[in-house]
Design goal:
The chain is of the alpha+beta class. The chain is built from three helices and five strands.
């Protein structure tokens, strides 16, 4: 499902025009991005948490040059789904067939 699909579905279910729904969805994502860029975590009860995780400094290898490089500590965005959300997905996907 893409962002366009989400906007279409919300528009259909609520009766709100797609343009207004798109502005709202874009504003929602912008607020989350700006909060995380500022170092704040965003918690949506029943859905999950958008958190900023700290990655420690580590040594890595450049295989082609056979040298060691140091990757400094840095922060990465992460999403942790709520337990209720995870349980619902687990219970509903048991009935789906896994295609190999």
């Amino acid at each position: 499902m893409t962002k366009a699909d989400i906007i279409s579905e919300i528009s259909t279910k609520t009766g709100i025009e797609k343009v207004d729904v798109q502005e709202t969805v874009e504003a929602f994502f912008k607020v989350i991005k700006n909060s995380m860029i500022g170092g704040e975590n965003v918690y949506v009860r029943g859905f999950g948490s958008f958190v900023v995780k700290k990655r420690a400094q580590k040594t890595a290898r450049n295989i082609s040059k056979n040298t060691a490089i140091i990757i400094p500590e840095h922060f990465v965005p992460s999403f942790k789904p709520a337990k209720v959300f995870v349980d619902k997905v687990k219970n509903n996907t048991k009935n789906l067939k896994v295609e190999a």
